Amino acid sequence: MIAPAALLLAAAFQATPPAQPPAARVDVEPDRATLEVGETVALVATAASADGSVLDGATVTWFAMVPEVASVDQAGRVTAVSPGEARIGVRSGNVMGFAAIVVLALPVAEIEARLPVDSLVVGTSAPLRVSAFDAGGEVVDGAVAIFSSSDERVAGVDAAGRVHARAAGRAAIRVAAGSTRAVVAVQVYDGPLGQIEVAPGDARVRTGDVVRFEARSPAATTLYPAWSVDGSGAQIEVEGSQGVFVAEEPGTYRVTAMVGEERAASTLVEVTPRIDEAELIKVGRGAAADHHSGDTWVFEGADGRDYAYVGTFMYDWMKAWDVTDPSSPVLTDSVQLDARRINDVKIHASGRIGILTREGASDRRNGIVILDLSDPARPSIVSEYKRTVPGGVHNVWIEGDLVYAVHNGTSDIHIIDISDPAAPDEVGRWGMPESPSKSLHDVIVQDGYAYLSYWDDGAVMLDVGAGTHGGTPTEPAFVSRYKYPIGNTHTAWRAGRYLFVGDEIFPQEWDADAPIEARGYVHVLDMEDPNNPVEVARYEVPEAGAHNIWVEGDRLYVGYYQAGLRVVDISGELRGDLYRQGREIAVLKTIDGESTVPNWGMTWGAQIHKGNIFTSDLNSGLWIVKLVEGQRIIS
Question: Which of 94, 103, 132, 483 has its CA 20 to 30 A from that of 405?
């Protein structure tokens, strides 16, 4: 007789369907589509085994290769976000299929065209500046314009939109883009130009130095020439009447100003190597090989000693290190939270209050944790604030008695008053309008402005007390936004006229316990007109990814993930590719055999404190280094 338990077990085995073979191919229908911005298309994925059999019910995961152009949900519905080309992928096991998506720009509804001057001297030229807009008033990038002149004898116009003054008189320059038209009137008159010269003449500079050239006439007429430079190691850009030159490679370059169809002038630029070298020397270590580390903040405590607090990733402790002797850090205590991640640590200017961010709490109520630092070697919890930020807080910034908290749930900045640390309360909030890609990652407040890193939606500048746009610390006012086509806006730091904005791009599938091949670089925005940021330079280390940024003096410090801690000279005006120009002066790879991923560094960022540089590594914990000027050894 068979026992009842055995009968149940046999029935269970009989009811279990045979294991489905893995997918050998994943097809996507349709495999290509052309959409306009805002349109959608439903894709269907079919997984098949090696023998061609369709695998009904196979688990698939959809992902967008360029979400800035086209996004996709887990039902396979694609939404066109911005003009361009993108691929949508679908994965079943280790097998993937793809569809090509082309997003068309909206038709041009309006164009604006203008010359920098109303009149030109015979023999000179000037460029037309043309802007195209769609029906919603958004700029249409890459719109094709066709130019013509009402009288070629007076003023001709070439295919690039440069107007050439040929004889005295008046002419109308016509601009067409699609079905839209614009007309620009130009007056041409006779006048002496004399010998044209390019100033400054025969310049001698280093790689990375910016030179602004002008074409000058004895008649004091402002000239708007077409600028060019011979050779591939330098570039020159037009800005108003000037040619803005910068070189990446040493050599002698000829800069030419083409003033008109038959008038040109040139000068030579001698470029020498940029020699500004230094060495990063390891001072001390607060090693952590049994868990992943997060952000670091260093401060002088109420007891006069120095401390570094280090958050953790996929772990529930914040570590407190006494770094008064930076060569020999001492772990004094730790604070345990109900969390899967303590990403950020910030300290109040008084040194007596600390803030920890929390993500992944078991009850899904995260928020921030406020620490009492009366005894900084052994911090204690004063209170927690969860009420309006339960969905997890990724980063914070403390300004006065206000905490600007990045809330994962709303992707807004929540402003929390901690003047009474035992009873914190939200007193303000600001967020971008909802968008398919809305995701806020970081915030920093400097000189009355907040800079928000809004991932696919770019870098946002707010007035939070500067007063230029009517904002206050608790009622921010929008100033501007800068969005680049591809890349995730992860962090920002303002220094002088520039805003340094870092990308963070991880592979679609990554594992914190294995080597991660991160990508992304630092965009340099000129904020001279804060209402209209302009990207003028970049710092891009090949085959690596940027993370957090710190600027002090004329040095940019970047935690560049697997490429280590990097120090860059940012003195003077910045243009072009800072890495290729030789502006990088020191490198230290935070590699350690005793770490969560042996011999694979993932440098987090940098903070300068009392002459030392403090950083954490995702895999190996706290690093303390010093920059020694005048020598360079790449570790």
Answer: 483
